Amino acid sequence: MKKVFKNTAMVMLAALTMGTSVQALAHKVGIVDMQTIYSQVPQTAAIEKTLQGEFADRRQEVEKLQGDIRFEMEKYQREATTMSEDQKKALGEKIQGMQKQLAEKGRPLEQEIKVRQNQELAKLQGTIIEAIEAVAKEGDFDEVKIKDATIYFNPKKVTDLSGKVVERVSKK
């Protein structure tokens, strides 16, 4: 009787072990390439267009100031040999004033653009994550990983979901 009980326990243990390994083999993993998704969804281009329009006037002002500084610096280099010391000093002070003005306008503009870009990209990222979750649920995936954060994956055993995610996000 003890032998039957022992054999039954061994068979059950073997079955449980096999069941676990079968489950581990059945683990369905997908992968997404976020760079590809961001570059292919139309919302990214729409964000760029929106931000360009939103900051166009201020960007033009900064670009004009940069052009003026370049012009004055080239003028200084060209004409320095024929200028008096007072003229050199006046032009140098003018260039420094313009550079200060550029710093006062340029840096805050860059920061404001980055903040707005991050706000818009955060919205898009939420949409992309929702799409990834929906595609994963539809395909009955157990796990989805980001390609850039994965050191190695076997392309024969891991499904790239990027195309389906781009398709889904593009419809929104």
SSE blueprint and pairings:
Blueprint: H1 2-25, E1 29-32, H2 34-40, H3 42-79, H4 85-138, E2 143-146, E3 158-160, H5 162-170
Parallel strand pairs: 1-2, 1-3
Question: Which short descriptors sum up this protein?
Answer:
172 residues; Protein Binding, DinI Protein, Chain A; disordered N terminus
Query: Which class best fits the helix and strand makeup?
Result: mainly alpha
Number of domains: 1
Distance between the termini: 67 Å
Strand order of the largest sheet: 2-1-3
CATH class: Alpha Beta
Radius of gyration: 31 Å
- What would the average pLDDT be, to the nearest integer? 86
Which CATH architecture would you pick?
2-Layer Sandwich
CATH topology term: Protein Binding, DinI Protein, Chain A
Helix content: over 70%
Quick one: biggest sheet? 3 strands, parallel
Q: Stretches where pLDDT falls below 50 for ≥5 residues?
A: 1-16, 18-22
| Number of continuous helical runs | 5
H and E order:
HEHHHEEH
Principal-axis shape = elongated
The CATH superfamily is identified as Skp domain
Number of strands: 3
**Percent of residues in beta strands?**
5-15%
Structure at a glance:
This protein is mainly alpha-helical.
Report what the structure shows.
The chain is built from five helices and three strands, in the order αβαααββα. The protein has helices at 2-25, 34-40, 42-79, 85-138, 162-170; strands spanning 29-32, 143-146, 158-160. The protein is mainly α and 172 residues long. Residues 1-16 and 18-22 have low confidence and may be disordered. Helix 2 packs parallel to helix 5 (162-170), helix 3 (42-79) packs antiparallel against helix 4 (85-138) and helix 4 crosses helix 5 (162-170). The radius of gyration is 31 Å and the shape is elongated.
